[in-house]
Predict the 3D structure of the following.
Amino acid sequence: MRKVAVVAFAQLPSVRMDTDREEVELVQPVVKDALRQVGLRIGEIGFTVSGSADFLLGRPFSFVSALDGIGAWPPISESHVEMDGAWALYEAWVHLQCGDVDTALVYAYGKSSLGSIRDVLVQQLDPYTLAPLGPDSVSLAALQARALLDKGECTERQMADVVARSRKSAKQNEFAQLKGDVTAEALLRKDYFVAPLRKHDCPPISDGACAVVLASEERARKLCERPAFITGIDHRVESHALGTRDLTDSVSTRIAAERAGVWRGGVDFAELHAPFSSQEIILSKALRLGPDVRVNPSGGALAANPVMVAGLTRIGEAATRISRGDGRRAVAHATSGPCLQQNLVCVLEAS
């Protein structure tokens, strides 16, 4: 396999509602910043790919308009994935494996504030038997959390501990939306939102964007002092039919982790795309993360969750920490679909 590294990562601060930016204005600053970090111009990038969803903006082919943020000249080799940007990164990684390009730009953007994101995500469901019933994303996550509690896999106190840690970690992240010191006891005194979930157990509504630059080993060592090499990456999808799955487990994450080689070495920290507190508990178990592994030092998706961006952000956050020497080996994870239906696992290492 060709060695590929993350050499740059840029993101916008996540906010509840960005009234000043459309897709072009979201894309332009993060792309400009990512390219600046490695001293490249857009004409020197071999492949460009984006991740987004037209459902969020309510109009078709919004990703075409977003290309204005890249620039009309020079012409580029470009692709788009109707998914979280983490899957766009996977496409770029595959393209780099082919050997015809040495660099790739990956960007993602999303505005969750334009409509009811809970109802928009119903469109991810099986269109014949489940979507017509209209179960929203929070209600489905609540069913998953209830199954986890009833099975004895966790307690509401443990879910509150996840939120408290996330908010505390996010204090060090200038791009996070929700941050601060709060105790689990105080969180448990809050009313239920959709039982057994309280509002803090759910992701914030966020607008944002991010961009990543990938490079082959030879280019990476010239562009970045300490590249974060992708030593393993894999993604898996489970059944649309929620009744055929054990919602308290994430089989697809476990298979992706095995194929990506997560357990071939120690893990210093993990960036998990867990929009709900109960899902972090499920993912940590599936990835076999021990108590010594720091989970979501950025605050994770409970601190900022721009849809279609948060998964790519997990990879970018992990790569940034590797590059600045906070650790030598990390796991990044992205998810999409109801109740952790689709999962991508990426292993990053210093070399």
The two ends are 15 Å apart (CA to CA). Residues 23-38 form the longest helix (16 residues). The chain is about 35% helix and 20% strand.
